[in-house]
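Students often ask why inverse folding is considered easier than folding. One informal answer: many sequences map to the same fold, so there is more than one right answer. In these notes we will look at a single instance of the problem. The structure comes first.
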């Protein structure tokens, strides 16, 4: 044959097939955007000609482009072209008002630097810094900015904090009814206090405040920054964006049509408990209309079974119930009736959609598992259905997932995210907290697992953080609580091996998004979506995998990121 376009030599291939078999070799040849040979350095001789670019990998890891199978790049736009409230250090013992003042100082700096903006959008505040009685209000923002709408999204994307001007523009006052799924926090006279929780409440702001949504052009700008600054830098070549607006969807389509995507994007249609019938009619009728080849597709229905008020099989801790003024024995609550949820899933399956269901508490997980399994049996259609997050899982439900072919989409860094360790113990006690995020339980029951970063919920979107946390179930060594929590709260009995973690962040993510025949592993005939690291990941201590850097990211045979020397 004529020479390859690109040859990678002197590396160590770290790739796993869909069946879990390790792919060995030191070199890869690429031609026409496809992998044409995987083997040894000696095997590459016939693929090298005068026009072939040869890259010496210096004994470092060559791996497939990684799949972030649950993230929110569109929502992250507020990081790139809005007010960034992440990274504000909260000290122990600070009062709720002191914490609010820190957010307001960051907001004040942004407003001062963006005087010409008609609306201020931001993201990154943390609702769990507050109780219902200490919640921040519209008045806090009004002191900084009252003449234009301000909309601040929480880091978890389950809450909005707005000023009075935003409420006025949305025509929301003491007479606005509460949504079916969501909460409007109110003042004593019933007027909205400025905090909205969960999607249906948040939509009251998002749909009514003029100019709330970024324009398609702004989203296009933001996503290009995301690709360059975050995705390709971390070796990501495929993502599933699990929540976005109509304008963001148009931006994705434009980028795909213009050949400006350096990651493949898969989207979702969100179906709500309040309007599921009309939404399913709409999405069924328009299925495929937003698809642009293999670069951008929407073939998935997303459903929330609960919000940030997790639904558990057993009650929250007595201390948490008392602190929050809840009824004794409180277990949380979900959004859906079982029969309605099952019927909605059946409609989605019959229309040819995959399901992507958000469930955290073990009661919500049980509902999602049972309804999915029942719908699959009733319709005879399985598809590549996914339950995402899965904080606490009854082992019976893990077995059902394996039997029914339901995937688990996990965020390993959540196991050890500094702020969550104590939070989980305070919610459900140490014994139940030790069982959280049971990666090993899924594998033992034949459940295929894909990883997602959930960025920007957990920034940055660094897959090596996910890999390390899956393998150690511990905080990073420099964290102040490393020694306190290492192997204690989330012990290593449920940890993953390196190859299992690699499979979850590559080929299993591609499988989830129906792209395992195209990408996700280093196999001949597949798209040349490849990553070269700055080290041999198998030769460094597992506690330092999170420090691994990407030297080059290759997408469809072209270098889309190269680390500066």
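Output (designed amino acids):
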């Amino acid at each position: 044959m004529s020479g390859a376009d690109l040859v990678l030599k002197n590396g160590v291939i770290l790739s796993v097939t869909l069946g879990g078999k390790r792919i060995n070799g030191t070199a890869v040849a690429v031609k026409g955007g496809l992998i044409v040979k995987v083997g040894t350095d000696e095997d590459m001789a016939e693929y090298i000609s005068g026009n072939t670019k040869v890259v010496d990998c210096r004994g470092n890891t060559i791996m497939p482009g990684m799949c972030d199978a649950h993230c929110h790049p569109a929502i992250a736009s507020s990081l790139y072209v809005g007010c960034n409230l992440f990274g504000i250090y909260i000290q122990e013992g600070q009062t709720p008002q002191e914490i609010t003042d820190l957010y307001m100082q960051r907001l004040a700096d942004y407003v001062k630097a963006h005087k010409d903006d008609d609306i201020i959008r931001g993201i990154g505040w943390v609702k769990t810094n507050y109780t219902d009685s200490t919640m921040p209000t519209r008045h806090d923002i009004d002191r900084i900015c009252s003449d234009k709408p301000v909309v601040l999204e929480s880091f978890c994307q389950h809450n909005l904090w707005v000023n009075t001007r935003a409420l006025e523009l949305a025509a929301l006052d003491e007479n606005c009814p509460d949504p079916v799924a969501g909460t409007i926090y109110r003042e004593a006279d019933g007027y909205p206090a400025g905090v909205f929780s969960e999607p249906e409440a948040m939509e009251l702001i998002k749909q009514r405040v003029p100019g709330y949504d970024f324009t398609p052009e702004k989203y296009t700008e933001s996503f290009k920054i995301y690709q360059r600054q975050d995705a390709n830098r971390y070796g990501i070549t495929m993502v599933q964006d699990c929540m976005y607006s109509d304008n963001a969807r148009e931006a994705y389509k434009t980028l795909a049509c213009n050949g400006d995507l350096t990651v493949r994007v898969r989207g979702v249609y969100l179906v709500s408990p309040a309007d599921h019938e009309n939404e399913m009619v709409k999405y069924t009728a328009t299925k495929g209309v937003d698809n642009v080849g293999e670069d951008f597709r929407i073939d998935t229905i997303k459903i929330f079974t609960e919000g940030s008020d997790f639904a558990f099989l057993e009650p929250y801790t007595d201390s948490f119930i008392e602190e929050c003024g809840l009824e004794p024995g409180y277990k949380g609550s979900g959004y859906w009736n079982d029969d309605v949820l099952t019927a909605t899933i059946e409609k989605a399956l019959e229309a040819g959609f995959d399901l992507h269901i958000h469930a955290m508490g073990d009661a919500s997980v049980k509902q999602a598992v049972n309804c999915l399994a029942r719908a699959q049996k009733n319709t005879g259609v399985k598809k590549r259905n996914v339950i995402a997050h899965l904080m606490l899982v009854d082992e019976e439900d893990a077995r059902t997932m394996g039997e029914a072919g339901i995937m688990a989409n996990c965020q390993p860094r959540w196991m050890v995210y500094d702020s969550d360790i104590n939070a989980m113990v305070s919610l459900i006690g140490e014994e139940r907290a030790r069982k959280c995020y049971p990666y090993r339980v899924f594998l033992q029951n034949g459940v295929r697992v894909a990883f997602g970063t959930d960025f920007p919920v957990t920034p940055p979107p660094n897959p090596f953080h996910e890999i390390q946390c899956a393998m150690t179930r511990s905080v990073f060594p420099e964290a102040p609580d490393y020694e306190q929590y290492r192997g204690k709260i989330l012990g290593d009995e449920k940890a993953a091996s390196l190859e299992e973690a690699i499979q979850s962040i590559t080929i299993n993510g591609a499988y989830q998004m129906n792209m395992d025949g195209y990408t996700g592993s280093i196999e001949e005939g597949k798209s040349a979506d490849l990553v070269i690291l700055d080290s041999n990941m198998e030769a460094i201590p597992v506690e330092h995998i999170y420090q691994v850097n990407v030297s080059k990211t290759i997408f469809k045979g072209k270098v889309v990121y190269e680390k500066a020397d």
